């Protein structure tokens, strides 16, 4: 395969360029599905278990790499039989069922572009994304079709095929089961080019429509490399990424990276259930576990006693992503599981892990870790189109030097918006951070979340972490509220652990705890109790939504909202 041995910018070798044993594409082309399944069959590893699927009701199905090669070839043939061409958009709308994974791999094998959607989306978010993405195909279930699609399907002019999971389909749709059964298991994988579009993931902005982030087939180089370096994925590893493929983590590190690295990946159809999760780790002897801070905080909320009956000795590496992992969660996991969760940082736009606490690294609780090998990260202060690099210990915007293979290549139909992400040969993340003298990066907050109070710049994550150290607090969201004297004051919203009752005395005690930890200038002036906090489906607390509702401002795009405060 044609791939650069050195960085065009620095003329130095880049670590993902030498992917012998991971990437095996023909010269001049690369296809994610070939690297994920076909290659393993070709090299005699087709009988190895690729996917263990756990159904909601206790079903259990194993799929080998040969099984996935067969199913993805059949799906690719279904697409071509209906006249679909390379570059057409295939959308999935379903839970974590095997058909989703067949569709993803088959779409890529045929050279089409795959876009997974959360099954919990309402009709309008689904429609908006399908319009932006020029959807040609939708794969969904009969129930979701009836509830969310049927009323407006004819208003998407590009939509040509709707496949319904199962053996029957409503009028105007095609049943997935019979179509697959009637398709050939032989398909010559498309020789897609490195820069051919492969995946589109939608990410919400504070205003306007969601952004369709385009990734290409060459991203597989970085998925392969980062899976090995940041997550310790090696052939035969029992690996569980708990993320839904509707979230970029659930595709990049829940489908592509594990399969390319020839692991056995676990897919659980059910949503979070503490005992089910703990039992799964024990029963399946999970070795590498990749999850989200929200789930980890829910484990903490249940307490160490809930974990005590289970055997976690199979675990060798734990990682977390989605939002910063609070220091107390790192310490708690080390005590309960025998090792800490390792935080890492990346975005939909980066397409892969950029900063990580890698296996073997010293973990500094609360830090995102160090820049991945080959990734150049910096902290800058921006003035117009000029960036000034800041010294260690200074807070500024986290930026990355472009050039890694999984970097986004476009926002669909929004070139100007895409161009604004790059200034002075840096990618602007929009996140504020600080780098210490050892090269570890520390998250401060989104640039638009920063609170300016009485001359102090306050990062909400710092305050939230201090609040969670109080024994009563399970989760916290912190925002700035306008104040005539101070400019802004800090206000916190918290949920409580079991056995704690919200009242004035507890509110005072939590504020007092924060003042001792942070000082009066930084500590919240007010603490509000909530049953839940608004979160995205990837587990991020939506601070901007808390602030919009507090101040009566427009809420922006809330299509990714999973839970709301009550």
UniProtKB/TrEMBL annotation:
Keywords: Acetylation, ATP-binding, Ligase, Nucleotide-binding. Residues 47-412 form the AMP-dependent synthetase/ligase domain. InterPro entries: AMP-bd_C (IPR025110), AMP-bd_C_sf (IPR045851), AMP-binding_CS (IPR020845), AMP-dep_synth/lig_dom (IPR000873), ANL_N_sf (IPR042099). Pfam families: AMP-binding, AMP-binding_C. Its EC number is 6.2.1.1. Coiled coil: none annotated. The keyword Nucleotide-binding applies. Residues 462-540 form the AMP-binding enzyme C-terminal domain. It is an enzyme of class 6 (ligase). One of its GO terms (molecular function) is acetate-CoA ligase activity. This is acetate--CoA ligase.
